[in-house]
Amino acid sequence: MTLNRQPISVFDAVSKVVENVSHIDVETVKLEDSYNRYLAEDLTATHNVPLFTRSAMDGFAIRSQDSAKGAEFKVVEEVPAGSMSDYELKEYEAFRIMTGAELPKSADTVVMFEQANVTEDTFTLRKTFEPYDNVAIEGEECEKGEVILHKGSQINPGTVATLATFGYAEVKVYRVPVVGVLSTGSELLEVSDELERGKIRNSNTPMIMAQLERIGVHAKRYNLEEDNLETLLEKIEKMFNEVDAVITTGGVSVGDYDLLPKVYDKLGAEVLFNKVAMRPGSVTTVARAQGKFLFGLSGNPSACYSGFELFARPAILLMQGSTRAFAPFINAKLGEDFKKANPFTRFIRAEIDFIDGTVISKPAGFNKSNAVTSIAKSNGVIVLPGGTRGFEAGDEVQVMMTDVTSGVSHFQVKQ
Amino acid sequence: MTLNRQPISVFDAVSKVVENVSHIDVETVKLEDSYNRYLAEDLTATHNVPLFTRSAMDGFAIRSQDSAKGAEFKVVEEVPAGSMSDYELKEYEAFRIMTGAELPKSADTVVMFEQANVTEDTFTLRKTFEPYDNVAIEGEECEKGEVILHKGSQINPGTVATLATFGYAEVKVYRVPVVGVLSTGSELLEVSDELERGKIRNSNTPMIMAQLERIGVHAKRYNLEEDNLETLLEKIEKMFNEVDAVITTGGVSVGDYDLLPKVYDKLGAEVLFNKVAMRPGSVTTVARAQGKFLFGLSGNPSACYSGFELFARPAILLMQGSTRAFAPFINAKLGEDFKKANPFTRFIRAEIDFIDGTVISKPAGFNKSNAVTSIAKSNGVIVLPGGTRGFEAGDEVQVMMTDVTSGVSHFQVKQ
């Protein structure tokens, strides 16, 4: 409850969050429910891939030593994918073979249909073939026991395919955290309420619930009946019993009616920081109590949005063991002047576009911290370092790609 | 069923898909169910934002014409957020006001607490203030009736916040398509099956289901009891009655046992293309029947993966009216040699990383079209144009960012 909070840098603030993360418990889920979860153990190959030396094309399996321009072969058998034969090819014999089918004994190469002059049960070659042409050799992709993906990897569609290949009908993953969301502020109306003078509808709660949904996390919504210390404390204590992390919006600044600092006191919470050298959202607070995070985001929608992306998102992904918990940063050309210098790092909602392979980023409409509409138009956030100078259109700046599911391994903001 | 199919370029193939898209029907959903859906009508502001001129800071509301160095003000009332007063400020009077609260009549500026020398019920200023300092003016963000977002916009967390702000408890969106997935091939086992000689587990069906889940689309899985024309035709006819689009894997090449071309014939389907100048996946087929798409993807996992991302994904998003249906392409440095020239465009599963704002892309492990494990390690696809030359490490190449939720408005592959 002091007016003179000491701001820490954005990098230090994120580092403090990261240092305080503890992993959530592990559970076993069915393969079909595993997409977008995080592996809680290394994924190991249960057999060689390919399991057997097989044809990579539709064609004729032959012994490469028989191949030569004009050499004539006799087709002795045919093997669709999924079938196999114990027959051992002899000189100038061939199998008609389909993609994926096991190569017959002594065969080591496949001639594609279009590479042969075919006549009834025979064909002739137009050139010599090397061993293993058009063939996938047993174990060439990976060997039994090899670690394919490490613990903490996000299960993407390719991971699902790999798990299926190796017969993992179930997989150990980190549990999905349940995150409680509560917006404070007596000026807040529900979405279906008629507007009243002096009031606004609560947009932060549904926004954060969508931000949580975007990273596959379960949100639990809480409502506050009255905006006083006792009710708020009671509500947050209830949330702590029901969820794995708490996000509040509003009530964190230095105004006379901002109650959360008092709630942190009562809870005996360890406040990691309560002022960050950033605009908007300098009053963002992150605390820990009972081994759980309490994210006190600003009530201003834009500050709330970037506060979530900067602190809550990586923390919630790290709880699930993610090794790529941060939004990627990319260099882009600034599309508009920001001439006024600011000592704090500025986060500006931005529209990122990819034109001819180059990243262009311009502010997404009206840029004040209370702007809601510009969040809807943005798919990233321009980051302007704090300091004594302003920025001009054309300057190279960093852009945080918030609307990206796949992240990177480190928080990459410039210090 | 001809061996001599005419390949078309990747760009032309995608264009053919785009030309044949028709919009799916529209439905109304609750705000809390709207994330990741596509707006079926423009989103219009139902009131000015801000609705009233309000304080952007905690401080004292004054009339700017009274402000001067040393000027003394008397605090006559206090206004928390959500409250308001009809009192009209007189000369050298001030309101103690909280962020978000409506400015009293005749007040036009807010002095932050830390900008004033406060003593009991009075304070003095250290400088002059301009009108609208620390104030959000009615309608400055947007005006009633303004179109905020156009039809076809993806509903992101910011859109949810905007809908809430304007009191849209429900919103019209395009229905989520149901997509049927069927893998063909008698060599395929289920994930829980023991491996048999000559067979592999079906990894394409679960992979595609995860690719569909990634774009928020419902997948319906079908199994094939027997791999013959009659059963396959019956199954696909059944799928057509139950889903909005059909994806099959395997059965599309020129092998003797590939039945899908015959099925397309029997269905009277219009085949948009059945050969694309790309590796892997040149046999990828897209057809239309009964107003629905039929995506015939290759049975090779990597070809299946990129075939989905190139053709099925944008089609399914366009059906929902999306204005940003394509994966972004970005320029990146190639991390490895690809010296062998290929007349076809090559798609290589890649690991994209963002290091100091620069995009680095390297092939994700073993690169053959039957490689499953490298899909799991990839978050993008390197695109090497077809032609007469190979590529060297360090060459600038395009990378398709497949693992990104927010897309761009046009398919950006170089022609």
From TrEMBL, chains A, B:
Stored SUPFAM superfamilies: MoeA C-terminal domain-like, MoeA N-terminal region -like, Molybdenum cofactor biosynthesis proteins
Cofactor(s) the protein needs: Mg(2+)
Name of the protein this chain belongs to: Molybdopterin molybdenumtransferase
Keywords of this entry: Magnesium, Metal-binding, Molybdenum, Molybdenum cofactor biosynthesis, Transferase
Protein family (similarity comment): Belongs to the MoeA family.
GO annotations of cellular component type: cytosol
InterPro entries, A to Z: MoaB/Mog-like_dom_sf (IPR036425), MoaB/Mog_dom (IPR001453), MoeA-like (IPR038987), MoeA_C_domain_IV (IPR005111), MoeA_C_domain_IV_sf (IPR036688), MoeA_linker/N (IPR005110), MoeA_linker/N_sf (IPR036135)
A Pfam match: MoeA_C
Pathway connected to this protein: Cofactor biosynthesis; molybdopterin biosynthesis
Gene Ontology MF terms: metal ion binding; molybdopterin molybdotransferase activity
Biological processes, Gene Ontology terms: Mo-molybdopterin cofactor biosynthetic process
Enzyme class: transferase
Role, per record: Catalyzes the insertion of molybdate into adenylated molybdopterin with the concomitant release of AMP.
EC number(s) reported in the record: 2.10.1.1
Location of the MoaB/Mog domain: 180-318
Reactions performed catalytically: adenylyl-molybdopterin + molybdate = Mo-molybdopterin + AMP + H(+)
